[in-house]
Structure prediction request, 453 residues.
Amino acid sequence: MASILFKSTNGQSPPVNLREALLAGLAPDRGLYFPERFPRLAPEEIAAFARLPYHEIAFRVLSKFTEGVIPNEDLAALCRDAYTFPVPLEKVYDRVHVMRLDQGPTASFKDFAALMMARLMGRFTREDGRQITILTATSGDTGSAVAHAFHKVPGIRVIVLFPFAEVATSQRKLMTVLKDNVRTVAIDGKFDDCQAMVKRAFADPQLKHIPLSSANSINIGRLLPQSVYYFYAASRLAQPGEPIVFSVPSGNFGDMMGAVVARQMGLPIRKLIAPVNENDAFPRFLASGHYEKVVPSRNSLSNAMNVGHPSNLARLVAVYGGQMDETGRIHRLPDLAAMRRDLFSSSVSDERTRIAFQDVWAKYQLLLEPHGAVAWRGFEDWLETESLDGLPAVILETANPAKFPEEIEKTFGWSPDVPPAMAAMIQLPEDYDRMGTDYEAFKAYLLAHHRIS
Ligand SMILES: *Cc1c(COP(=O)(O)O)cnc(C)c1O
Prediction:
């Protein structure tokens, strides 16, 4: 079988293989890379996952995309090396489960993709004898996952910008204790300022000689590994061929796109629920067919999902036959009827998030943090419209409660346990640079620091 090529959602760039798509991040026409066609897994192949460990399922799913780019035995070794931690599925009631994606090194689901992407990028740059600089802006979880995953990867320099006042102390420490090839820069500004500085650097002709790449969720390397845990959950909870329901708390829609990829590859998903916080551009679009970004984005308890215009919507729209450009303009409407059949989305206010999180604790002694609570409430919203019919359902908990302890402390008066790996890391001494929002000063910094010493 020929290797899978990736085309741009804007349709103006030539298709490239996984290596090129991963190293480029964004397509030259500013669109997002997406598979030209989806490889399929036969029902027997999916049924066989029931007896396999996580890293082996990861290998069997990802190898469909890496043909002709990485030898299978090498990919299998990368998967074994990346996925060494458990993926707990906790039963809540009947066949309803919570999947905790918080056991990786930085305690959020973003570890799953970052760990694999770092290994793939490290391999590609080594093969080419290239050096690259990963430049990324973070509101918290992405920065720590990316910094940790790329730490000490030869040939790669990482520069992470974060808004000093908007990042919790433990979140900051997960990035700033790493050092070596990782530089963290605290910006005296907002997340939007960090993102604007990074975007400007990518577009700056005077920085063209620096091989910059992004590790944001626009990179296809961040997306594909996120399809694996949907296969994993189904392999443990569903009978062969039996459809399953997922609820995925959504911000940039990278996580839920992992489920869309899994479905395109053959995993039977009865309903994919993608609840959002008060940044409700997507549920309004699904209901009306009119897309309007939320500007400026609204702050909420689930702060990793404060996204006014989810970047991955362009990919979702493409799967349903439409076209959306990077500004959010729709050039061709997707098949809305099919989207409504497959997907459900509701907006969960902070008030409803708080109630969900208290209810779940009172009823099931199940501890969620705000992102998981949004997923829970979104699932219950869907149950008011359709019946589960005895099928298995999985609500994704995307971070460890210890990363977002404020609501828990406020409500219950105690603090959630900190996972051991995180506890050890946040004891280490920090090292980070600090600057304002002046682009020229940041550019001078980049020019001075992009080389790997
Ligand atoms: C990033 C993040 C999300 C949102 O994921 P998207 O892929 O952006 O939709 C949800 N929960 C947590 C804890 C996150 O860090």
Observations:
- Residues 108, 110, 141, 217, 249-255, 304-305, 371, 398-399 surround pyridoxal-5'-phosphate (CB under 6 Å).
- The chain has 19 helices and 15 strands.
